[in-house]
Automatic annotation (TrEMBL):
<keyword id="KW-0378">Hydrolase</keyword>
<dbReference type="InterPro" id="IPR014721">
    <property type="entry name" value="Ribsml_uS5_D2-typ_fold_subgr"/>
</dbReference>
<dbReference type="Pfam" id="PF00825">
    <property type="entry name" value="Ribonuclease_P"/>
</dbReference>
<comment type="subunit">
    <text>Consists of a catalytic RNA component (M1 or rnpB) and a protein subunit.</text>
</comment>
<keyword id="KW-0694">RNA-binding</keyword>
<keyword id="KW-0255">Endonuclease</keyword>
<keyword id="KW-0540">Nuclease</keyword>
<dbReference type="InterPro" id="IPR000100">
    <property type="entry name" value="RNase_P"/>
</dbReference>
<comment type="function">
    <text>RNaseP catalyzes the removal of the 5'-leader sequence from pre-tRNA to produce the mature 5'-terminus. It can also cleave other RNA substrates such as 4.5S RNA. The protein component plays an auxiliary but essential role in vivo by binding to the 5'-leader sequence and broadening the substrate specificity of the ribozyme.</text>
</comment>
<protein>
    <recommendedName>
        <fullName>Ribonuclease P protein component</fullName>
        <ecNumber>3.1.26.5</ecNumber>
    </recommendedName>
</protein>
<comment type="similarity">
    <text>Belongs to the RnpA family.</text>
</comment>
<dbReference type="InterPro" id="IPR020568">
    <property type="entry name" value="Ribosomal_Su5_D2-typ_SF"/>
</dbReference>
<dbReference type="GO" id="GO:0004526">
    <property type="term" value="F:ribonuclease P activity"/>
</dbReference>
<feature type="region of interest" description="Disordered">
    <location>
        <begin position="125"/>
        <end position="152"/>
    </location>
</feature>
<dbReference type="InterPro" id="IPR020539">
    <property type="entry name" value="RNase_P_CS"/>
</dbReference>
<keyword id="KW-0819">tRNA processing</keyword>
Length: 152
């Protein structure tokens, strides 16, 4: 179970993550991530913990299937909370294929989306750094230029 302090509950928090955050899509789910958001509902100046919320629509399946997917996603996110920066908001939206996917497939898609959002793997690369489509920015694009990309 996801601890209470790590749950998104308010509509405004979901909206902030979805509308003002970054997004990474995978075949089974879409992860919306907003880093360093402060909690307007918290008292004091302390930084709130990372919080997560889940959206599982009727397109995923009947109620039993939706609840199973939600429980699996909650369990997966709970194990990955330590990777998320304090104060961040995460919304995991299950896509229709999530209803027939097993736990390992959901874990792989969640890990890939979080890696991309946290800046560890560029878009177009898989988790090993290999190019999956397009150009992989693992190395410098223009080796004759400084890291900032400005020519002298």
């Amino acid at each position: 179970m996801l601890p209470t302090e790590h749950r998104l509950r308010r509509r405004e928090d979901f909206a902030a993550a979805v509308r003002r955050g970054r997004r990474a899509g995978r075949p089974l789910l879409v992860v919306h991530f907003r880093s360093g958001a402060t909690d307007p509902h918290a008292a004091g100046e302390c930084v709130p913990p990372a919080r997560a919320g889940f959206v599982v629509s009727k397109a995923v399946g009947v109620a039993v299937v939706r609840n199973r997917v939600r429980r699996r996603l909650r369990h997966l996110v709970r194990d990955r909370l330590d990777r998320l920066p304090a104060g961040s908001l995460v919304v995991v939206r299950a896509l229709p294929g999530a209803g027939t996917a097993d736990h390992d497939q959901l874990a792989r898609d969640l890990d890939a989306a979080l890696q991309r959002l946290l800046g560890r793997v560029p878009k177009g690369c898989d988790s090993s750094g290999a190019v999956t489509g397009g150009r992989c920015a693992a190395g410098p694009r223009n080796p004759g230029r400084d890291p900032g990309g400005s020519a002298q």
